[in-house]
Every structure is written in structure tokens, then in C-alpha cells.
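Pilot study result, target chain (653 residues):
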Amino acid sequence: MRKILVTTAWPYGNGPIHLGHFAGMVLPADIFARYHRMKGNKVAMVSGTDMHGTPISLKAEEEGMTPKELSEKYHKIIKKSLRDMGASYELYTKTTTENHYETTQDIFKTLKEKNHIYKDTMDLFYCPNCDRFLPDRYVEGVCPHCEAEDARGDQCDECGMTLDPIDLKQPYCSICNTTPIEKQSEHHFLKLSEFNEPLSKWIKEKEDEWKPNVINFTKQWLEDGLEDRPITRDMEWGVPIPNGEKGKSIYVWFDAVIGYLSATKEYTEKWREYWQDDEAETYYFIGKDNIPFHAIIWPAMLMGYSGLNLPYCVSANEFLNLEGRQFSTSRNWAVWLNDVPFDPDAIRYYLTSIMPENKDSNFTWEGFQTKNNEELVSTYGNYVHRVLTLTENKLNGEIKTNKNEVDPEVQQKINETVEEAGKKIDNREFKKALEKIISLAAYGNTYLNQKEPWKNNNPSKTLYNCLNIVKTLAITTAPFMPNSSNQLWKTLNNNTSIHQQKWSEAKKPIKDTKIHKPKPLFKKIENEEIEQQINKLGSEKMEDKQEKIPFEKFQEMDIRIVKIKKATQIEGSDKLLKIKADIGNEERQFVAGLAKTHKPQELEGKQVVAITNLEEAKIFGEKSQGMILAADENDKPILLQPENETKTGTPIK
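Predicted structure:
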């Protein structure tokens, strides 16, 4: 029996979490934990809400609340939404518990006693108007790397670069817009630089086991040379520094990673089994932006403290985008976890099928609808419902094992599915595992169609083998879709929860039973339901970031006749066309929502009207260097075109 600690990165308690968070860290961790419980391993899955940090203080000031009140409010929302989505934490806690404060302060004091922490001064921004030092997120300005104008002091959302507030161009206080001044402040620093060599040796041992993105990122950091980092800040909201220093607290990045240890202590008195047993395995499921904290800084802290297990595996996913754009809390470009109106299992299925395991992936509502209707409903759900209904109609719902034989081909397919899907889950290849399982449902449909038990006077053997496939599907889908798998398990007349079953049970033939009346596992999602979700995405429509332009603004626009050279549909989108057009003096690329009303080949050679001096945009992953103009008639785009052939590039005034 393996001892496995499963952890997920701690979300800030400054708002609800979105599907990007869930797909990147919670869902893979939950699949992994559920599988290993079914394998008979001793599993603890822990995490919680990060209640400290400047994002919370900022939000609290905006809403007229204390940081404690605000973080408590959102902790409850986050905790409930995770539970509703089927996340099976043994403990989901928060960083304001007495236990967490004690654990954090113990590590701080121990590292200081061992001379891994020292005091020094540093230059920080100070707002003369607010009369206080400004933590990183209280400073905004122009990114020094990509020139984005709304970069925060800790990170630029546009290019993803980690920043220092001092590096920002044209910095300003995010509270009052005053230009801050530099001022010295005394803080505690972690001697991260002294761990460069031991971390390099340790990460080398992980090269064949961890994802390339984690290894490559970590090695690059180490090759560049680690620098000591401040671990306190000029804010009172946070874990107090041992022995107290007025107006200061422990930096949130330092106390948040300690949460994995404090949460395990809170969960069980036997926490040492996970943290001090050399055979125990700790898995950290995070997003790629958290790699340095989990693959470098936290291991360095553990090395300095000594006596606690280093990470067994840091599994970092890439980013999940939304309709071709990054999730953005500040721009309200997100699907909030507490506001998803669809079956959680259907959402979990789609997110697993597009999980950004090795590269960024893209969530679209139309993609979700397609996956649900064509795979969950038409392939998996349809097969299960056909078999159960035929069993009820042909056999009165009764299965007698002594009258039937296991088809060797079916059993071999079942065995292969169970073994291969299990190996893929254990190796954190969740998409491939799910594909293998769903392929068994497709095989079942083919088998059922070939045998045609509805034409047979003695369909018992065929339905018996089909029910063995159904049983296997129920068990193997349990880590991915916990609710529907348990519903199916109950329909097969089992009194216990499917999550109490062993994974190996999926290979065993079904026992004598009388099934319950079947109900559909999943329901078809209609176009109207998807349109509602599209309209909720901020103030912008899905796959169309181009704004409507007020009439008075047209005098500033370069509007001209352009000629379409080539038009192609953008892969993965039902609405968008990629259009190459001659604008008179050069060729440009446009993205336009015309796919549902115009065939690409019919557009080629046509002259249309376009705005050519708009800022370049990224739509559904493709650059758009302007806007093809159309009139709106009964919600259908009517292209603006010249009455007669006109010289390409002719301006329209």
C-alpha cells in the first residue's frame, strides 16, 4: 500500500475561482486521488484558501470590508463550489487557522535559527499620499518586457513575466494613482542562493519522472542563479512575524506553501506518515505560473528546515484559455465555478478531454456542447441506456451468471481498458486515460449492433457481456465523473458507493442481479443554453472581440475597399473565418464571424469594406488586423460591398 499526499495550489480568497483554476490543478488532483483510493492506497488530498496577500487587501478596500471579512466570504463560496464540482478533499481549510499560524512561525523560527534567514534593507515603493509602503500588487504601471499598460507589481498578465514593482515603467499607486517614491525598509530574507547547488542535484534526479515543462523551467532558474528573497512585507494582514514587528507580516508566498504541511497536520494526527516516511509520496498539482514556488522555493525551505519530505512530484499544467483568450478575473473574462449551470460531470468530462497537460488548451462553449452531445450522450450514455433497457425488456431486468459465458474478446477488451487507463492515470496522463475508457463504450456499441440481441429469442449471453462492459465503465469513469458513475452503479443494484470499490473490480464479471429501471445518465444540451453562456462572457460575445464602433468614431477610421484573396474556417470554431485580403498596398489577415452564413469559397474574389487601422487583436488564437464591416439584419451579417468593381484600397469617406 502506497501512502500518497495529494495537494493543490491555494487560490486567493479575493473572489470565486474559475474553470481555469479547476482544470489546471483541482480536477487532475481529484482524478488522481480518487483512482488511488480505489487502488487501495492510503490517500490524503488537502488544500485550502489563501486568506492573506495583497489581492485580498485590495479587494477588501474596494468593497469596504476588512481583509478577514472578505476572505471568509469567498472561502465559503470557493469551498462550496469545489464540493459541488465533486472535488474530494479530505480537508479543505484556510490559512487563518491557529494551526497554520503556529506551523508557519515554527518554520520561520527554525530557518532563522539555522541562519537561513537574515535581515537587510531593500528599496520599496512608498506612496506619499497614502502614507504607506506599497506591496507589489498596490503598484501598477507599464510592463518593462511587453509594454502592457496595466501590469501589476508582481506579474504582467499580458506576457506572464514575473516582475518587481521597482522595474515597472510609469508606476503609480493602484489606490490613489499617485506616483510612488523609492524608500528603504528593513525585512527578513531567505538565503535562497545557498540552495542553488543542492537543488540542482535534487532536480537532476527528477528529470525522467517529471513533466518537461517543470524540469526545463526549474533548470533555467537554477542556471541563472538563485537570489535571496524577502519573506516579510509592510502589511499587517498576514501571519505575524515571531516576536512581533509592528506593521509587518510574513510574505504570503512564504506562508502559503507551508499550508500543505499545516493542512496535513490539521487533517490527521498521523501527519508524519506523509511527511517523514521515506516511502510516502507527495504530489503537487499546480499551474505553470506556480512552478518556481513548488519546484524551487518550497523545496529550499524544506531542505533548510530538514526532516520533512521533499516533493515526490510537481505536476504543472499549462494554461486553459477561454474562447481563445486568457482567463482574466479583472476583465471578467471567465466562467466562474460557482456559476456553472450544467451537470458537473459533463463539465469534468470536457475539461479532462481538453486538459492543458503539455500545452495551453482552449475552452469553448460550443466545444463543450459537442463533447457532451456526441460523446457523453450519443456514445457512452446511449450505449449504457440501450443495454439496460434491453435487459429490462428482454430479461425482466434479471441477469443469471450461471446461464451465460464470458466472451473472451469482450473480457480481453475490458482487461486492456482497466490496465491501460490505470497506468495513464498513475502517470498523470488523464486525457489519454479518459480516451481509453470512452473507446470501450464505442466498442460496446459496435458489439451490441453486431450481435443484435433484439432479434434474438435468447439474448441473455449478449446482454450479459454488454452488462460486463457497463460495469467496467461505471468503475473506470468514477474518478472522472463521480456522480454519474455512482448513479449507474446503483442502477446495477449495488447498495454501496462506487467510490468504495476496488479498481480491480472493473475486470470481474457482473454477479447475479436484477437491475433497477434505467434513467439517462446525461442530457443533451440545446443551442439556446449555450447562447446564454456566450452572452454572459463579460460584455463580449464568444469568438468575437471586435467592438461595435460609435458613428462619431468612424471619421477617425481608415475605411477602404479590400479584396478577399482566401477564406478558410478556423479549426474548432463554428462561427469564425480567417480571411486574407488585399487592402491596396499590402495583404492583411482578418477574423470575421461569417462561417454560419457565408461559404469560404464564395467569398474569395469579392470586394468588401473593412477598417484597416485598428489595433491588431488575437481572436480564437488567430491575429486579426482590422475589421470586415457588415450590417446586421435579423441577427445575420450582411456584408458591405461596392455596387461596381472598384480599385482595391480605395478609401471611403
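One observation from the pilot: The longest helix spans residues 365-395. A full batch analysis is planned for the follow-on phase.
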